[in-house]
Write a structure and sequence with these properties.
Shape: rod-shaped
Helix content: 40-55%
Strand content: 15-25%
Distance between the termini: 37 Å
Number of strands: 11
Largest sheet: 5 strands, mixed
Number of domains: 3
Radius of gyration: 47 Å
Order of helices and strands: HEEEEHHHHEHHEEHEEHEE
Length: 424
């Protein structure tokens, strides 16, 4: 839920509660005031009739709204107001009335006085007043909502601009984030914090990237020296089986470290856009050549490769394409169950690699992160798919993974209607 919607919802709830309380209080107050007015009117009618009787004991000329009855016994004076319902003619409907019953003594005789007044005008007045107040409150609320919406769009405009700038921010772009100023203190404070944070984060990222590049290059010479010394020791034929086993373990560890170093250098070169030589490549021919090169490895694992390739031309760096396709095919071979089939399909929109195998042990959503392996027992560095993802991002392609019914599927989707777009 958006902030403005939440504020408006709370405002509407508050307005509704206030309206109900005010309406209830107004109804009670006005009802009391009107009834007091009606009671005064009834009492005034009673006094007028009382004066008439005092002058003319014969009860002639009495107002028809007042009923007077002469009592045979003397009674003490009393007054009683109450509400009652009377049948209205000719509609024959019950209508609410205010009723006064009074007993008073005049000229030595007791009289019962009864008079009444309709409360229909009072009810109509109260309903009209409540509807008027409700309509006024509704107009006020609607006006406040519309006004608040327009004001919010203007007031929150800098905030939306800040979000757009942050969404477009990337550590790989040298351009710093540029936020427009605002006349609101809180947004100005947010602007200063964001600019300071992004500047420091970009500086830290560049420092870390520079360190990675320098460390990777500095490691190449020591690794080459170690490799050369191990090769020299391997040529010595006086090693016993135990020494040979240790030597083989060192060779494997050194080979793994060398591959890790080369991969890190390659990732850094891709991030820094240090590859050139864009060329149009016929992808089906390129994949066919890759498949022919690994036929011996496929036969060793007793696998079969099925290809369904459509002619497709892309403009890419051949070296990066070779690395990406090689890693994807190698991933299929590494994780395919022996005796199963690997499928490679290419059409104008996508490239799909599919192999049969057991489900992965790690989270599939993390596959394209560095150092994440689908099988922790494998000798993989966990950088293959991460490298493929970097290359796909470089080419503006989309890659995804899915496991269904015992099959692993890696699918690359090319840019729609923009397949030959040259990366920046």
């Amino acid at each position: 839920m958006k902030l403005l919607q939440k504020v408006n919802r709370n405002y509407l709830w508050y307005t509704a509660v206030v309206f109900l309380i005010v309406s209830f209080g107004l109804c009670i107050t006005l009802t009391k005031i009107v009834r007091n007015e009606v009671d005064e009117k009834l009492f005034l009618q009673f006094q007028m009739v009382r004066e008439q009787i005092n002058i003319n004991p014969g009860l002639s000329g009495i107002d028809h709204l007042v009923t007077v009855e002469k009592l045979t016994l003397l009674r003490s004076p009393s007054f009683n107001f109450k509400d009652t319902f009377l049948v209205e003619k000719p509609e024959q409907e019950l209508e609410k009335y205010r009723y006064l019953t009074a007993i008073d003594t005049l000229n030595g005789n007791s009289y019962r006085f009864e008079t009444w007044a309709s409360l229909i005008p009072t009810s109509e007045f109260l309903w009209a007043l409540l509807l008027t107040v409700g309509f006024a409150m509704l107009l006020l609320v609607l006006g406040m909502l519309v006004l608040n919406q327009r004001i919010a769009k203007r007031v929150w405009k800098p905030f939306r601009q800040y979000l757009d700038q942050l969404n477009g921010f990337s550590f790989e772009k040298p351009k710093k984030i540029s936020l427009s100023p605002s006349d609101i203190d809180e947004f100005m404070e947010l602007r200063q914090v964001l600019e300071s944070f992004t500047t420091k984060a970009q500086s830290d990222f560049n420092s870390l990237k520079e360190f990675t590049v320098n460390a990777s290059h500095e490691m190449q010479t020591p690794l080459a020296i170690i490799q050369a010394r191990l090769d020299d020791l391997t040529q010595i034929g006086t090693m016993d089986p135990e020494q040979a086993r240790h030597m083989q373990a060192m060779q494997q560890a050194l080979s793994r470290l060398s591959r890790l170093n080369q991969t890190l250098i390659l990732l850094t070169r891709i991030e820094n856009n240090q590859f050139s030589g864009l060329k149009p490549i016929e992808l089906s021919t390129f994949i066919t050549g890759q498949v022919e090169e690994i036929q011996e490895l496929v036969q060793i694992k007793n696998l079969k490769i099925s290809v369904d390739l459509t002619e497709k031309v892309v403009i890419v760096q051949p070296d990066l394409l070779d690395i990406a396709i090689g890693n994807l095919i190698g991933n299929c071979i590494r994780h395919a169950a022996p005796g199963t089939k690997i499928s490679i399909a290419l059409d104008s929109r996508s490239l799909t690699f599919r192999n049969e195998g057991p489900p992965v042990l790690s989270d599939p959503n993390m596959f394209f992160n560095p150092f994440v392996k689908g099988d922790t027992a494998s000798g993989s560095l966990g950088l293959g798919l991460s490298l493929v993802k970097k290359i796909c991002d470089h080419f503006r392609w989309t890659i995804g993974y899915q496991y269904e019914s015992g099959f692993h599927t890696l699918k690359i989707i090319f840019l729609a209607q923009d397949y030959d777009r040259i990366p920046e």
